[in-house]
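User: Okay, second chain of the day. Same drill as before: sequence in, structure tokens out.
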Amino acid sequence: MNRFDKQYADSVRHILRQPAELNQRTNHAVRAQAGMTIRVDLEKDGFPLLSLRKMPWSFVPEVMWMLSGVKDLHWLSQHTKIWDSFAEEDGTVTAAYGNRWRNRFGVDQLAEVIQKLDQDPSSRHGVVMAWDPATDLTVPQKNVPCPVMFTLNVIAGRLNMHLVVRSNDMALGHPTDVAGYALLTHMLAQRLALMPGMLTVSISNAHVYENQVPFMEELVSRETRTEEVRLKLPKDAYSRAVALDPSLIREIKDSFSGYLPGEPMKDIPIAM
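Assistant: Same drill. Structure tokens below.
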């Protein structure tokens, strides 16, 4: 069992001990914990790919789609359907994170942060926002960002990311988010000629819906043979991701080693 598996299982067990309350938006009972944090040293601990169950690889094309900055689903839907339910009639996603990073606020935040850290690795100004207070608090929409912002900084030649998540479904969303932002950190580190460092994920509301409890109880009782997952990124992964090079998906999948997951867990309910 790798370091992320252990942290994940401990976090879920803690949530399962909490009393259930009704969530008005979903009309589902939910168990929750405020202020939960996951920390993984990407260089020393390896890649945080959950091995208690076999993970889908949807996070790979999802990260590429985000880096491209587009908000329509034409390319992404060819590789995964995970965002399709959030699409508007014109095939776009209002909450598309990458579009918000690169186009939403009149500046390409990601490009500016990369340039800033290229010029001054000691800078602590590497902040990228996805949450738009002008609309996300007031305008009804199919989805609003769960990962609302991340920061990037360089210490001792390593690129560190701190991700802030306002709300995280620990059964489904959390393992995918952690894997996706770990991959993003690797890609940005490669682009900046740095080693990937610490990934810290701070969750304001970490929760398990009541209809997911039996699945989670079974999941955290598992043991796996995975000790350490490693990723050796293909060359020029960042620029190829931005260009939506479809061959990169398979190359990244094939670049993982040490992943020995448990059986997949199908039909985990999702509360919309």
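DSSP finds eight helices and nine strands in the chain.

User: Thanks, on to the next one.
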